[in-house]
Structure to design on (316 residues):
């Protein structure tokens, strides 16, 4: 299912600002997609469900000016946390060409070792997943006010 | 003057949450300090004016639990941008022991090469310095709502 979605997106040029969501759980994706639609009406949320799909999407889009995602939301447990770590390391490796993309980790885990290890891997920020939809909305609203209105992001989108 | 301030802070245990401000311009520091006081009443803003002082402060505090700054605000031009880059690289080098501290760059420059290079060096976010005090207040309010209320930061402060 996520695979189909990714293929559908990759065949059409995305005209709205893309944001990549790497999430292995379809129910979680439904919630995140709804919250993104509500808080970021100008954004096209692209769903991929594992590291291989994420890298394939980025490789494909990095040759299209302005099509690289403005932000990446990364679920740490994909489904093992090692999968998330591995992808985060790849994204932040300058040789891969994506290291300037901001990566926001969304994770159910609030364990200090997960939080600290993620910052050690140079993620942008670590968010423990909200428990209900209203909390998702207030978290994404605060995220938008900061990242869209205060911060200057790399790339042509800003 | 910043040196004296740093020495004064280093001799007393900071009981409020420390935030480190690396800024070579005293007038800018006055504005930033005022805006931090207004938006972060529980925070102790620590001022250092160059890379050596910043590293000395961090080295001294990393042995005191809970005393490492929750966030670092880094002026890129100290006064040359090479000085800011060098410090940013040192802060993000895992061997130095500070790589998990979030670094927010505050810079007058909105040049794409400065913005992109900063993200390439794994900074947390890049903010072009606001032009007046009211803009500083709204930028720091949005920053607080995101970093304090939504994000989980590493370390014992959270």
């Amino acid at each position: 299912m996520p695979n189909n979605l990714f293929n559908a997106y990759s065949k059409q040029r995305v005209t709205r600002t893309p944001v990549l969501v790497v999430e292995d759980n379809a129910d979680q994706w439904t919630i995140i997609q709804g919250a993104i639609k509500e808080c970021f009406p100008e954004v096209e949320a692209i769903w991929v469900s594992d590291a291989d799909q994420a890298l394939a999407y980025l490789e494909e889009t990095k040759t299209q000016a302005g099509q690289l995602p403005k932000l990446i939301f990364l679920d740490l447990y994909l489904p093992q946390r090692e999968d998330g770590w591995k992808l985060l390391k790849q994204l932040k490796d300058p040789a891969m060409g994506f290291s300037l993309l901001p990566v926001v980790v969304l994770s159910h885990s609030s364990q200090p070792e997960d939080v600290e290890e993620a910052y050690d891997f140079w993620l942008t920020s670590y968010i423990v997943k909200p428990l209900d939809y209203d909390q998702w909305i207030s978290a994404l609203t605060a995220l938008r006010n900061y990242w869209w209105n205060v911060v200057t992001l790399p790339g042509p989108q800003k």
